[in-house]
Amino acid sequence: MQSKNAIKALATMLISDWKVIVVEDTYDDVQMVSKILSHYGIQVHITRDGNECIRLLQQLEPTFVLTDLAMPDKDGWETLVAIRSNPKTAHIPVIALTAYHSVDVADDAIRAGFDGYFAKPINPVTFIHQLEKLIV
Question: Per residue in 61-96, pLDDT tens?
Fold first, then answer.
């Protein structure tokens, strides 16, 4: 879980100040998510798998990571473990995104340590509002 100082810092942050790493291997999903986030002035960094995300985290501290669960190479589950096991990145919120939605997957994701969970396709009207609730 996030520290009180990290939560306070996020609470004072405007949506347009957000920096998000989107970890997604499907072109259409990358386009959809990045367009929605960009529409709100959010800085979007795209990585195609967990390995790229972990490399990018060496250079950038995002507001949060939004990761697909099912990807080749390092999937979202493995990416979460890598982020949480590094003291420099463990505090960063990680939100799951998946097309393989079920109540069990959602429960497993939260139990595994994801800070939030979204089923695809996301609703572009409510997506940012739901992210705000999770992040601030």
Answer: 999 999 999 998 899 999 999 999 999 999 999 999
Task: Detail the DSSP E strand segments found in 6-115.
Answer: 19-23, 43-47, 64-68, 94-98
Q: Which residues contact 78 (CB under 8 A, 6 or more apart)?
A: 50
pTM, two decimal places? 0.89
Token pair of 87, please?
């003291």
Task: Specify the amino acid at residue 50.
Answer: G
Place of tokens 């979007």: 44
Residue 73 contacts by C-beta under 8 Å, 6 or more apart in sequence?
49, 50, 51
Task: List pLDDT tens digits, range 16-70.
Answer: 999 999 999 999 999 999 999 999 999 999 999 999 999 999 999 999 999 999 9
**DSSP codes, 98-128:** ESS--HHHHHHHHHHT-SEEEESSP-TTTHH
Cβ contact 22:66 at 8 Å: yes
Domains and CATH numbers, the chain: 4-135 (3.40.50.2300)
Helix (H) or strand (E) holding 22, with range, is strand 19-23
